[in-house]
Amino acid sequence: MALFPLTSTFARRALAGFAALAVPLLSGCSWQSWLGLDGKQSTFQVEGPVARDQLQLFYITCYVTFAIFIIVGAILAYATLKFWAHSDADEHAEPPPQGHGNPLVEVGLIGAAVLALVVIAIPTLKGIWYTYDVPAESKADAYEVVATGYQWWFKFEYPKEQIAGAGPLTCANELVIPAGRPVRIALRSMDVMHSFWVPKLAGKVDMIPNRANFIWLKAEHPGYFWGQCAEFCGESHAVMRFRVVALGPQEFRDWVEHQAQPARSVAAAQGALSFAHVAAAPIRAYAPNEAGVSAAYETAPLDSWRARQLPNESEDPALIARGRALFSEKTCISCHTVRGVPGAMGITGPDLTHVGARSSIAGGLLENNSEQLRRWIHNPGAVKPGNKMWVTGYLVNNIHLASDEELALVAFLQSLK
Ligand code: CUA
After folding, report:
1. Ligand 1 atom nearest residue 193's Cα
2. What is d(CA 154, CA 172) in angstroms, rounded to the nearest whole number?
3. If you measure from the C-alpha of residue 362 to the centroid of ligand 1, how many angstroms do you get, rounded to a whole number?
4. What is the mean pLDDT of the chain?
5. For residues 10-35, b (16+ Cβ closer than 10 Å) or e, as one string?
6. pLDDT tens-digit profile of 245-264?
7. pTM of the model
8. CA of 235 to the centre of ligand 1 (A)
9. CA 210 – ligand 1 centroid, Å
10. Domains along the chain with CATH numbers
11. Using a 6 Å cutoff on CB, does residue 240 contact ligand 1?
12. pLDDT bracket for residue 1 (50, 70, 90)
């Protein structure tokens, strides 16, 4: 007991397998949280039919193996107790007469093994069928999206939402989908192998260069879901994350309509073009892996996401105008698209046309707010080691941002709702 005190998370998780077998009927209760299985990426608290099918298969496999464990364990215990050497005499006694097998036991064991395999194989094959593609009866209702993996972020394109002169609607790191509808996602990669995984909605499927993979999933209700790359893809693989935001039908239509608009432009008030009044505060130091997320983002992420769709009340038009100019001067436009900003048509990095309305930045790693955005553009290499913005942007092009320039760029990007 000293090795594994029950208070440790490790010991509780070790018990998880047993409890998962004993109490799955209590799934409405919080045994998952007691066992530490209720994380943002928990496969035990599913919210879509694909993930639910996979979870049920997991339980069936556990039931069968647990039954085998109990039967074998019971026979072992029986044999151990029955043939225990109770005295010295027992220990030196002749072994009992040796038999040469019992046909009934042998055939029975083969039969039981086959039965166990069949019990697991039937739901497995059904599950493979079901999770492979959108069921025929709901195919007509399926919404299509294209997801492309990059080192280390995700691009999402909406082929059904074409924008005149700009191709399909393109977003990054936050996949907004209609809730209650199957979504079929084409999976592509621009460089190495990645893997697309939203644990509460569906199991993972690889994104392989030059190979057309796909996955389907469905969110039963509006919600905010954490996802991440699940295939090692380089030094910042562990921080290659994304979100899925599921919205009701009308809210989804509104979102698409708004996203299709060019970037929001904030008119600078006449005579207010000096931004000398902005104190160019030095950036504070961050500890490695410091998350820096707000309580609202942690506890009510969907509401927090919705609130972000609206412009900030305290924005400074002069500062935003300065940031808009810097976005071109500092060559950000050669890697990022911002529809509506002349020349901003780069496709190496994420489309930033509506970046201010996203809840996360830096490939789903940081919460999107002025402080964290500044931390990101101040030193991208410290936040996400090896990323292209740092290595082939800042270092190769010798980009340096003064404190006031950082603040102006942040204000501009935050205004892109
Ligand atoms: Cu992309 Cu790991």
Report:
1. 1
2. 6
3. 14
4. 88
5. eebeeebeebbbeebeeeeeebbeeb
6. 999 999 999 999 999 999 99
7. 0.85
8. 9
9. 16
10. 13-81+104-131 (no CATH), 137-259 (2.60.40.420), 275-415 (1.10.760.10)
11. yes
12. very low
